[in-house]
Design goal:
The protein is an alpha/beta fold. The chain contains ten helices and nine strands. Helix content is 42%, strand content 9%. The longest helix is centred in the first third of the chain and has 22 residues. It starts with a strand and ends in a 10-residue tail after the last helix.
Length: 296
């Protein structure tokens, strides 16, 4: 996975509030049971901390009040993205949003950009206050993606993903899949509170996986707004395998078996490992969001 060294990055699409902590912190395997349960069985790759009951009164200042922080100074070009993790995520966000802007326009619609917020510890959102324990999430209340970069270590060490830069890109693209669903109206289907292998929650998550694959298919051919050349210049078969491996690592069955010792499909919210791999690849192989109708 390689970016054009000379391409300009748009840091306005990322808000960096790392270091501006609310009370709380990251959940690890050595942490408290409640935090671990939230990480493993709760809002993993999900939508809004309010779904887990993690909202709290007096959540403190939200991300919108912060500056762009260190990202604005450090992440200027594709060369920075090839050298630094946080800059790489900035570049991925730029690429994803450029693609969806063009795709919505091609279909006669308008894409509304969504910022990504880098945080650590705890963050205030329009969906409530959330800790890093819930993993990356999209908040429809403020239409922002929230991400603690330390999660990518958890993906590899706690969930058995092979890791790699494109595994990280898959995570980000999945969250922007939720934003696309928010704009198209599909996201509301997951709000019925029903779980299970055939639930709307699972179908919503699998569609976001598929949308991540659609972006990946077009990532190296979508011209950037600054240079007219693709920001992402190289995406290999090994990169796609890393994305598929990450998708499988966070399947409900894999997580439940690893941490519960048994699989309970009636409580699934995101789909099995095989389903997540299948729908990501469906999006990648077709390159067509119309092929991502998991509700059909």
């Amino acid at each position: 996975m390689q970016f054009d060294d000379d391409a300009d990055l748009d840091t306005s699409e990322v808000q960096d509030v790392r270091g501006s902590r609310l009370p709380g912190g990251r959940a690890t395997l050595g942490g408290g049971l409640a935090a671990l349960v939230a990480l493993v069985l709760g809002l993993f790759f999900g939508v809004g901390p309010d779904q887990l009951g993690l909202s709290s009164d007096g959540g403190g200042p939200g991300a919108s009040a912060s500056s762009l922080g260190r990202v604005q100074q450090s992440c200027r070009t594709g060369r920075d993205a090839n050298a630094r993790q946080d800059c790489r995520v900035v570049a991925v966000v730029n690429s994803i949003q450029t693609y969806w802007t063009k795709e919505f326009a091609r279909r006669g619609g308008t894409y509304a950009p969504s910022p990504t917020v880098f945080f650590d510890g705890r963050v205030g959102t329009a969906c409530g206050s959330a800790s890093s324990a819930v993993g990356p999430f999209y908040c429809p209340g403020d239409r922002k993606v929230y991400l603690d970069l330390g999660f990518f270590d958890d993906l590899r060490t706690q969930f058995g993903s092979s890791g790699g830069p494109f595994a990280e890109a898959y995570v980000v693209a999945h969250e922007y899949g939720h934003h696309v669903q928010d704009l198209t109206g599909a996201l509301g289907r997951a709000r019925d509170g029903v779980t299970g292998a055939d639930s709307n929650s699972v179908k919503t998550e699998l569609q976001a996986d598929c949308y991540a694959g659609v972006w990946a298919r077009h990532a190296t051919t979508t011209p950037s707004t600054s240079s007219g050349k693709p920001l992402l210049t190289s995406l290999t078969d090994a990169d796609i395998r890393d994305g598929l491996d990450a998708a499988g690592a966070v399947g409900d069955d894999r997580i439940q078996e690893r941490y519960q010792g048994r699989v309970t499909p009636e409580t699934w919210t995101h789909g099995s490992a095989e389903q997540r791999r299948q729908w990501f690849y469906q999006g990648f192989s077709s390159g067509d969001m119309a092929q991502c109708d998991t509700f059909r």
